[in-house]
Amino acid sequence: MATLTWQGKQPFDERVLSSSTTHLHTLDTFLSQPAENIALATQSTTNDWHNRLILGNKSKVLPALLHEFVGAVNLIYIDPPFMTGRDFISGTQLAYSDKWKNNIDIYLQWLYETFLLLHLLLAEQGSFYVHLDWRTIHYAKIILDEIFGFSPNAEGAGYKSEIIWHYQTGGRSYKSFARKHDTLLLYTKSAQYCFHGERIGERRGSQKRNHMRKNVGNDGHITWTIRSSGRLYTYDENTIMTPADVWSDISHLHQKDPERNGYATQKPAALLERIILASSEERDLVLDCFCGSGVTPVVAEQLKRRWIACDQSHLAIQLTQKRLLEQQLHYPFLLQQIDPEHSTTT
Ligand SMILES: C[S@@+](CC[C@H](N)C(=O)[O-])C[C@H]1O[C@@H](n2cnc3c(N)ncnc32)[C@H](O)[C@@H]1O
């Protein structure tokens, strides 16, 4: 099978992980609203569960999480640095640096180690989304094929979808086509995984959108028909269409959008809502180790999922904490960081 190489490519040694003594230290506990908590708790074995908001570098936080959560995470969404070569500023503060000494080898090794650790944390029936853009998405796909496995028909473990998030914002380009999309890859750890297209698909409706023939019944009810390979297919106007892999209906957050909280690379809640609804159930565990402005834990909380969120930026963790405390909490959450006294991994 084809694999990607770069200077200094190294799989991490799992023995290093098992001997890792990195631990998480709890700084604070935030309580949930009692009535809701009881409602969720009585339905499951998760009644003493605490969500986790963790300040720290993923290289230390993910090994620390392995002690408790190996194979336990149902859904992972990550929106890592894209290797833009820039520093991202929020207000007057540095949110994070995305420079990598302009060295793709350093970036790819970092991404590879991230993917390897997240693959270990992912449940056997779990789903993994990575959100990148034109700069490195092609490398990410080959690396993920290596880690998750490759099946040519996309039916086994591995690749499931390439989602184009198409938006209207961003500059013009005079030397190439204007760049107006990010790419998200969906991989699964096995052939059995959670996917609910019906929760996020659009109603077929009465407007023509392809070559299907429109039929209007005596009562005004509409059906659509198409003949293919000698068979006639009929679809009711009320059926939900399978969601497509080009998403043009979710706009980037513009500068004055009320959802904006000042974090430079904040993604819209609608994007996460679609992913979480499609690929998880209530009470499932969702992980984002680059949570930035907190969009993943906030939406996971609203949709009654459990979550673990991490970021190395103080600003990101402050914003996420604030956003979480402004809404109803179904579970309590812990604010944690790496315990400097018990940390040996590099
Ligand atoms: C593209 S932003 C994520 C934005 C987020 N999805 C949102 O909607 O706000 C990438 C984030 O990764 C964080 N980050 C970069 N390197 C990291 C590392 N090694 N460990 C943990 N977080 C890191 C940055 O601080 C930044 O918040």
Structure at a glance:
With 346 residues, the protein is of the alpha/beta class.
List its salient traits.
binds S-adenosylmethionine; 9 helices; ten-stranded mixed beta sheet; Rossmann fold; alpha/beta
Can you walk through the features of this model?
By secondary structure, this protein is of the alpha/beta class. It has two domains: 283 residues, Vaccinia Virus protein VP39 (Rossmann fold, 3-Layer(aba) Sandwich); 37 residues, no CATH class. Helices cover 26% and strands 27% of the residues. It has a ten-stranded mixed β-sheet. A three-stranded antiparallel β-sheet has the order 9-10-11, with no helix packed on it. Strands 4-5 form a two-stranded antiparallel ribbon. The structure holds S-adenosylmethionine (SAM). The site of S-adenosylmethionine (SAM) has 22 residues, from helix 3, strand 5 and strand 14.
Unreliable runs? none
Unique bound compounds: S-adenosylmethionine
Biggest β-sheet description? 10 strands, mixed
How many domains make up the coordinates?
2
- N-end to C-end Cα span: 31 Å
| CATH level-4 homologous superfamily of the largest domain | Vaccinia Virus protein VP39
List the helices and strands and how they pair.
Blueprint: H1 14-18, E1 24-30, H2 34-41, E2 51-55, H3 58-69, E3 73-78, E4 86-90, E5 93-98, H4 104-121, E6 122-132, H5 137-148, E7 158-166, E8 181-188, H6 197-200, E9 213-216, E10 222-228, E11 231-236, E12 246-247, H7 269-279, E13 285-288, H8 295-302, E14 306-311, H9 314-325, E15 333-338
Parallel strand pairs: 2-14, 2-15, 3-6, 3-13, 7-12, 13-14
Antiparallel strand pairs: 1-15, 4-5, 6-8, 7-8, 9-10, 10-11
Bound molecules: S-adenosylmethionine.
